[in-house]
Amino acid sequence: MIRDSVQKSKLFYAPWGDVREQSFDAWWRTHSHLFTEATVKVIDDMSQRQTDWSVVVEIPLNQSSRVLVSRVKEIIDFELKRQSQRLQKTPKKKVVLTKTFMPTRGAENYSEPKVAVLREVLNIYKNVYRPSPNLRGTKLLSEVHSYYNSRKVNTMIPASIANCRTASERTLSLRNLRRWISWAQRIEANVARGEFPGIYS
Question: Which has the closest alpha carbon to 145: 130, 126, 164?
């Protein structure tokens, strides 16, 4: 079961290539298209199609724009009708997502993820908890504070886990930190299934 899950995850993320041997900026320059919606544009050849659910259209500029737009609309309407027929097994699905790695919107009443918070959650999980998964309680909180103090930039400890002056403040910070670790673990599991970030709270 675990082996199958790992294999599926590897196949799903194969388009990412090797992310370990280059900086994020270098990788993003050649892979950012994986995270963007397909757009209307001139495509030189079929091999450059952004998705299987697309139509490559050549528009000869020898007629008025009104005529050309009308013809393009006819083609689009025809192809959408064909697509709808292919999707009859899932009639509730109105839109085919063209972003393979599209961030999930979550379930009903689930708000969009706050990127700034998730960044800190995943930083702590990656740089503090994962290297020392046996750390618990005040020792874990202390290591998290040390992690922020040792950073060259963004050294401010998030307010949710910063206060430890009194016992009640420390208890609240620990509770928030445990929640963050739990979020990160769920996100890690979700991402392995191809959800970004999926439901985690």
Answer: 164
